[in-house]
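Lab notebook page, bench 4
Experiment: in silico fold of construct C2
Operator: M.H.
Input chain length: 332 residues
Purpose: comparison with the prior construct
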Amino acid sequence: MTTSTVKVAMLSFAHLHAVGYATILKALPGVEITVIADDNAERGQQFAQMFETQWVPSIDEALAMDIDCVVICSENVNHKPMTLAAAKAGKHVLCEKPLATTVEDAQEMIAACDEAGVKLMTAFPVRFNSSIVALKDAVHSEHFGATLTVMGRNPGTNPGGWFVDPALSGGGAVIDHTVHVVDVLRFIYGAEVTEVYAQSGNKLAGGVSDDTGLLMFKLSNGVPVSLDTSWSRPSNWPIWGGVTLDVIGEFGVLFANAYNNNYDIAETTTPSYTWQAVEHTGDPEMVTAFIEAVRNDTDVPVTGVDGLRALEVALAAMKSAETNQLEPVTQA
């Protein structure tokens, strides 16, 4: 670092999370969003105005500027070329999940960043969520005993657009939502998924991509896990996701809801009852951790390998849904 200000380039606002990340970056002291690169001119100019920065149509223009790092929020299939370009330019990378759409692409991204000596962090904010951190501590408490089984859910709304085009996203709900929970389980237990059986469908919205998924898998510590990854929430659902974990242990049961910050409204003047969600995803902690790693030249807390391991499980689940067979999860 040559200055105390960390200069960031946002590469694409195609992903819904880009706005949240940029909002956090703009609020952090000693951080500057130097440029937004987006091949969609209307979108790029809109967000450049919103975040009071400049827009350029190509990532090459952005990478040629005086910047320290990039945040990639493109379509999933473009994660690889953007990461490779950033590594070649010597810029550190925070890449939206899933890290890539194939194991080979993820490996190439990791190797390129290693060779260039730049940091590669996968955007897994849920492991930073306060309820998940508390759950990890409770799971390893002597009062809880051994974990017997875990039931996970990560339902959400169907984002539409390029998310439902496998050529751009690499799949559907299974690849979109499996990776978050797999990363959380790896974070909690330090264990890997060894095998997975999955069923998926597209009965909710139709189309070619899966919008429902149910996975059964086993961790290397012997713990069996079930996971619902469906885009099963209606469009008017107040929050985009809903990561929950039920952990059954020897001496008790734990439940964590990463989106449980809400308040209820029961009006006395009308017969109505509603609840308003206040999302707390772990995004601020995740983005801050990346910036501090860049600023202080320290290791990122979530690596490219973490992204690869979660991707391997999602791809194995997609294969299982096609073959109707139990699939091993092979680590590259």
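Observations: DSSP finds ten helices and 15 strands in the chain. Residues 80 and 105 are 6 Å apart (CA to CA).
Next step: discuss at group meeting.
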